[in-house]
Design a protein that fits this description.
The complex is a heterodimer.
Chain A lengths: L3 E4 L2 E4 L5 E7 L5 E8 L3 E10 L2 E4 L7 E2 L9 E3 L8 E8 L11 E2 L3 E5 L1
Chain B lengths: L2 E3 L4 E5 L4 E3 L2 E3 L6 E7 L6 E7 L7 E2 L2 E6 L4 E6 L8 E8 L7 E3 L3 E6 L1
Parallel strand pairs in B: 2-12
Antiparallel strand pairs in B: 1-4, 3-9, 5-6, 5-10, 7-8, 8-9, 10-11, 10-12
The chains are: A mainly beta, B mainly beta.
């Protein structure tokens, strides 16, 4: 089954303790990205990657890191999480981006992160 | 920078009736894409409908249709014959291929369907 898999689904941690949220897709998609969802703000892009070893900042990259060593994986790293990073996080992927009608942006099921 | 505004935080509709969700956006571009996504309580993000800005014809997908007014920068979603399963948060989104396929989302509209 074609899917974007995020882990974990829920995560509670403390301020300053490094964490990684994993994202993997099995559709051979070139494009991957991370969003955070906050009430009243919708979803905002954190980082994106057009292909292996190519990453770039989105709208809210501060406090986050990403890497794209393999095509299928795009982990999100919080080196020193803070309470303002408490949010719902989504990983998304697509084959050729928005112009490919048959390949809309596929989202993972989200990771609910709480930083205390 | 592009912005997307959904001015209705909450909407409700009776089952089998029609509801329209509003969305406006701001851009100086002429070539872009607009989307409506549905997010049920399961948190999944489900693509409902997509519109290419160069197409004048409004997109339709079964009971879902849009009213795309390019000059007014308006992109509303009409749900006909509303069903209980349509209850969800709905997000309007704007995207451009040259912006890293980034989607700019609106704040969301929570739709309740009353039996």
């Amino acid at each position: 089954e074609a899917q974007v898999t995020q882990n974990p689904r829920y995560l509670i941690t403390v301020t300053g303790k490094k964490l990684t949220v994993t994202c993997s897709q099995n559709m051979n998609h070139e494009y991957m990205s991370w969003y955070r969802q906050d009430p009243g703000l919708g979803l905002r892009q954190i980082y994106y990657s057009m292909n292996v070893e190519v990453t770039d900042k989105g709208d809210v990259p501060e406090g986050y890191k990403v890497s794209r060593k393999e095509k299928r994986n795009f982990p999100l790293i919080l080196e020193s999480p803070s309470p303002n990073q408490t949010s719902l996080y989504f990983c998304a992927s697509s084959y050729r981006g928005l112009s490919s009608y048959n390949s809309p942006l596929h989202f993972g099921n989200g990771t609910r992160l709480t930083v205390t | 920078a592009q912005t997307v505004t959904q001015s209705q935080p909450e909407m409700s509709v009776q089952e089998a009736e029609t509801v329209t969700l509003s969305c406006t956006y701001d851009t100086s571009e002429s070539d872009y894409y607009l989307f409506w996504y549905k997010q049920p309580p399961s948190r999944q993000m489900i693509l409902v409908i997509r519109q290419e800005a160069y197409k004048q014809q409004n997109a339709t997908e079964n009971r879902f249709s849009v009213n795309f007014q390019k000059a007014a920068k308006s992109f509303s979603l009409k749900i006909s014959d509303s069903q209980l399963g349509d209850a969800a948060m709905y997000f309007c989104a704007y995207g451009k291929e040259t912006s890293g396929s980034r989607l700019t989302f609106g704040e969301g509209t929570q739709l309740t369907v009353n039996p």
